[in-house]
Amino acid sequence: MKKLFIIGGMGAGKSTARKALVDAGLPYIDLDQVGHDVLKWDTVKEELVETFGSAILGANGEIDRKALAAKAFVSPADTRKLNRITVPRIEDAYRDKVTELDAAGEEAVVVEHSVFKNRISSLAYDADVVMAVLASLDTRIERAVASGFDEQDVRQRIARQITDADRIEASDVVFNNDGTPEELRNKVLAWWEAYRTQ
User: Fold this and answer.
1) Is this prediction's pTM over 0.90?
2) What is the spatial distance between Cα 137 and Cα 154, in angstroms, rounded to a whole number?
3) Do 125 and 145 sit in the same domain of this protein?
4) pLDDT in tens, 69-100
5) Which residues contact 39 (CB under 8 A, 6 or more apart)?
């Protein structure tokens, strides 16, 4: 089963690219969603409360992601603490899903990976294809704010991500997405048709 990773900065259009491939019949794994799911695991919850305090819990006793982000993204050291707790669990959950899809005889899986840093020290180490979706910084900020994010928060998150130059270097395919969602969709589908028939 081919593993197709989609990377890109916040607001670049990873989800649009992923949706095009899903509409073409491919299953997908959204690593952000996997990350949200592991926050519900009791062991993860306990470790996070121990590290960042009970203020990260919402009224329902679950992790409040905004409250966690406010504590975990204050400094690189705090972000590392968060990653030490969550990343191994995310990797386990990801591998389980890949095994499941492979056993079901799927041709390929699309993996949306928003915190990609490089191919070696990430889940993309055995990717068959890494696709980068790029857009100008202004466009990305505008899109993220339009989808409900606070501009200051968006700028902080982008500042912590790798650069587009790094993404290009790590990728096999690059899609520029300064146009419409439809244009990106068409580019991605044309690429997939060519790729699967080589």
Assistant:
1) no
2) 11
3) yes
4) 999 988 889 999 999 999 899 999 999 999 99
5) 45, 48, 62, 63, 65, 68, 86
